[in-house]
Design goal:
By secondary structure, this protein is an alpha/beta fold. Helix 13 packs across helix 14. The strands form 3 sheets. The chain has an 8-stranded parallel β-sheet. It has helices at residues 3-9, 13-23, 26-33, 40-50, 95-105, 120-126, 141-153, 172-177, 187-195, 197-204, 224-234, 241-250, 263-271, 293-304, 319-327, 337-369, 389-398; strands spanning 53-54, 69-71, 74-76, 80-82, 110-112, 131-135, 158-162, 255-260, 276-279, 309-313, 332-335, 382-383. Helix content is 46%, strand content 11%.
Length: 399
């Protein structure tokens, strides 16, 4: 499908999500779409954006808004990045490469997951533009250091240390579907895959799916079950600030912590020389009941001031959500699920469409709110409404 026809058919992110549900087998869609346990935090991530009302200014002479921003010396054409999402290759063959190319063409950054289906080196060769790399601190610190060194050699411009995943959350959609380690796919799941013929044909043409960056880690056994179990065993629940300090000592480029919600953790990160934080609850996929990312954002931004870059992810589905996040102190946002939905529908072209939707919607929201530049977006754009359940969220966020 050509880009213009694609854009006419899928004119917002929700349209792409519904299309992704149709084209993907249920087990794959739920893996991408689901959250932990009762998915309370997953729902909060989106709902709490809705409680933030915009108070636009008129006759500002804004004209066509300028969406450019600068992150760690890299100028971006839009303040929307693609966050790390593991196993993108089960949605579309070589999904990480397709997404990285779309991000680079849009003038933004792609952050590669440690659990991608292509290696750090393969992505660097296929999509040599601006890239970040996500990693964890493992029980084997040598493995962590090796991944960091590979990322530096491959030209990654920043390292994203995820700190909220040292114990795996329980994602019950995956359990119900048998999408676990080891897999327990029943007849219904296998039949559902077989009935999604376009996806099945694409995936049959792809090479074996697995955690490519860990090839050879378990005695040459590279199947996804063995590697997933290995990575899970390597997660270290004793992760501490000493480990952050150690990683800071061996990584010379920008270091970003992903998974920060408490303002005190943000202050401590700044004291350890961290360059940025991503306010995130892992898309509602870890601690169910945790605060939404957008609700945690203002306190984190206030805690660190100008000492580090503050980013946010979770629940961002519209350009106006980006506007709200910027108003509460974020320099830019990251999206995960939306780019997967675009990827499922049309590969690289689908991811390009997702980024273009966010760009067009943010540009329109800024123009209607009276903002000519991102620097003009601040808390004065947010209204405080009458007392009530939604207003309590507004009061909390705007305070």
């Amino acid at each position: 499908m050509d880009p213009e026809r694609l854009a006419r058919r899928y004119y917002n992110i929700e349209k792409l999500r519904r299309a992704a549900r149709r084209v993907l087998p249920k087990v794959v869609f739920d893996f991408a779409d689901g959250g932990a346990e009762d998915e309370i935090t997953l729902a909060r991530n989106e709902r709490d954006f809705d409680a933030l009302e915009i108070l636009p200014r008129m006759c500002t002479g804004a004209g066509i808004p300028d969406l450019t921003t600068n992150l760690f010396g890299r100028e971006l054409r839009v303040p929307v990045l693609i966050g790390p999402t593991g196993l993108s290759g089960i949605v579309w063959p070589r999904g990480e490469i397709a997404a990285a190319r779309a991000a680079q063409a849009a003038g933004t950054i792609y952050c590669q997951s440690h659990g991608s289906t292509c290696t750090i080196e393969e992505l660097a060769q296929a999509a040599p533009g601006p890239r970040w790399f996500q990693l964890f601190v493992y029980r084997d610190r040598g493995l962590t250091q090796s991944l960091a060194e590979r990322a530096e050699r491959a030209g990654c411009e920043a390292l994203v240390l995820t700190v909220d995943n040292q114990v795996l959350g329980q994602r019950e959609r995956d359990l119900a579907n048998g999408f676990a380690v080891p897999p327990r796919l029943g007849v219904r799941a296998v039949l559902d895959m077989a009935l999604h013929l376009p996806w099945l044909v694409r995936m049959r043409g792809a090479r074996r799916i697995g955690f490519a960056n860990y090839r050879g880690a378990v005695g040459g056994n590279e199947n996804i079950v063995s590697l997933a179990a290995y990575v899970a065993r390597m997660l270290d629940p004793e992760l501490s600030w000493r480990d952050v300090a150690w990683l800071r000592s061996i990584w010379r480029k920008p270091l970003i912590l992903k998974g920060i919600l408490h303002p005190e953790d943000a202050r401590i990160a700044a004291e350890h020389g961290v360059d940025g934080v991503i306010v995130s609850n892992h898309g509602g996929r870890q601690l169910d009941g945790a605060v939404s990312s957008i609700r945690a954002l203002p306190a984190v931004a206030e805690a660190v001031g100008d000492r580090m870059v503050v980013l946010v992810d979770g629940g961002i589905r519209r350009g106006v959500d980006v506007l709200r996040a910027l108003a509460l102190g974020a320099r830019a946002v990251l999206v995960g699920r939306p780019h997967w939905w675009g990827l499922a529908v049309a590969g690289e072209a689908g991811v390009a469409l997702v980024l273009d939707i966010f760009r067009r919607e943010l540009e329109r929201a800024m123009a209607l709110a009276g903002c000519a530049r991102l620097a003009e977006i601040d808390r004065r754009l947010l209204a405080i409404g009458p007392k009530g359940a939604a207003a309590s969220v507004r009061l909390r966020l705007a305070s």
